[in-house]
Amino acid sequence: MTCDPSRSGLGIVDRGAIAIDAGVVSWVGPNDQRPHADREIDARGRLVTPGLVDCHTHAIFAGDRANEFGMRAEGRTYLEIAKAGGGINATLGPTRAASDDELIALMNARLDLALAGGTTTIEIKSGYDLTVDGELRLLRCIQRASAMRNQRLVPTLLAHLIPPERRDSRDAFVAEIHEQLIPKVAAERLATSVDVYCDEGAFTLAETTAILRAAKAAGLAVRGHVGQFKDLGAAPLLAELGALSADHVEQIDDAGIAHLAKAGTVAVMLPGACVQLRLPVPPVGKLRAAGVPMAVASDMNPGSSNCETLGVQMWLATTHFAMTVEETWLGVTRHAARALGLSGVGTLVKGAPGDVVVWNCDEPAHVPYRYGTNLVGAVFIAGVEQSR
Ligand SMILES: [Zn+2]
Q1: If exposure means fewest CB atoms within 10 Å of the residue's CB, which of 16, 36, 292, 374 is most exposed?
Q2: 268-306 pLDDT per residue, tens
Q3: Edge-to-edge strand order for the sheet containing 376-381?
Q4: 7 C-alpha to center of ligand 1: Å?
Q5: In the CATH scheme, what is the homologous superfamily, with its name and number, of domain 52-339?
Q6: What is residue 214's predicted lDDT score, i.e. its pLDDT?
Q7: CA 127 to ligand 1 centroid distance, Å
Q8: What is the 120 CA–ligand 1 centroid distance (Å)?
Q9: How remote is the CA of residue 153 from the centroid of ligand 1, in Å?
Q10: Using one digit for the tens of pLDDT, what is the confidence trace for 42-79?
């Protein structure tokens, strides 16, 4: 499976072979035409795909919220739990209290699990400190982890929530984000994009506008958590700013979908969080009809989706969201890379990174079809097999 945009569908090459030279794909084609290589690996007819791309995670945090999982199972809603002091705010304390080394160790353990599931490129958002210095610290920790790991880590600054201690000075807090935090993040190159949680209980559309305009002015790409609970009308703003992605979109109207389609903004589906919070399914059929590219991501976070494995999300995308197998695969490869502004990643074409997964099955549908079983046989990053 090449996911080559110049081939149809998933770009399947039957009985194919791939050559990697100096970490980069140098040739793809039929096995009987493969070029000479110093070292050859026989995949024995199994499915070979690009390394998976998880384009939406909150993988840097301390503590867990298993208590909230239990409360939801008993019928309490996410917003009820959040108003009672749970939710994102419950992760701020443990994250702020953890040392850099502790945060990196916790994150590395999650990234190892993601790698075991075939994820070779992974986005990580800040957002569990919510002070200027604390958010910079989280992004610096991601930068440190990135230097230690082979996986490609893509850092995002996330304006996640107004923290409880700033509820009476919310305008000043928003101003700190766009006047202080964003310029520092851009100057230190600590993130490639800025994301805002624009929803009921988080940032208003006016606040989102101020933050994302500042991000754009600082030369950073923009993204949005939008319409998870309520559509605050952010789609025209995201389209105007050429946003890479609009994530969640359980709630989005037809006009909003048309804006995303026109701008080429990727709609990121987060089925694990959607199922766990018992939210309505996003309008996949309408997004498809409008030609909006769709990605599928884990939303790995301690509250609504404590999951590192994209295979499980692929199962939920195909079953609960009624995405096709092809859409789901493109959603964790090429389209996910597009949501991160990465070209070449998520494909196996000449010049792309040599990030490859060999699966213990022979056809694409088996990965979501056999959910819960890790079918990953081997993972290569830049042509080098990873120990898992
Ligand atoms: Zn999220």
Answers
A1: 36
A2: 999 999 999 999 999 999 999 999 999 999 999 999 999
A3: 48-50, 356-359, 376-381, 384-385
A4: 32
A5: Metal-dependent hydrolases (3.20.20.140)
A6: 98
A7: 10
A8: 19
A9: 16
A10: 999 999 999 999 999 999 999 999 999 999 899 998 88
Please identify which residue in the block is written with the tokens 């990953």.
376
Q: Which of 150, 146, 148, 214 is nearest to 185 (CA)?
A: 214
Distance 218 CA to ligand 1 centre (A): 23
| Phi, psi of 243, rounded to the nearest 5 degrees | -60, 145
- CA–CA gap between residue 245 and residue 296 (Å, rounded): 12
* 166 CA from centroid of ligand 1 (Å): 21
Report how far ligand 1's centroid is from the alpha carbon of 304 (Å). 9
How do the domains of the chain map onto residue ranges? 16-50+348-385, 52-339
Alpha carbon of 50 to ligand 1 centroid (Å):
24
| Span from the CA of 349 to the centroid of ligand 1 (angstroms) | 30
**Which residues keep their CB under 5 angstroms from ion ligand 1?**
299
CA of 81 to the centre of ligand 1 (A): 17
Look at strands 24-30 and 16-21 and give their pairing. antiparallel
Neighbours of 259 (CB within 10 A): 24
CATH superfamily to which 16-50+348-385 belongs? Urease, subunit C, domain 1 (2.30.40.10)
Taking CA atoms, 251 is separated from 201, 223, 258, 336, in Å, by 15, 16, 14, 21
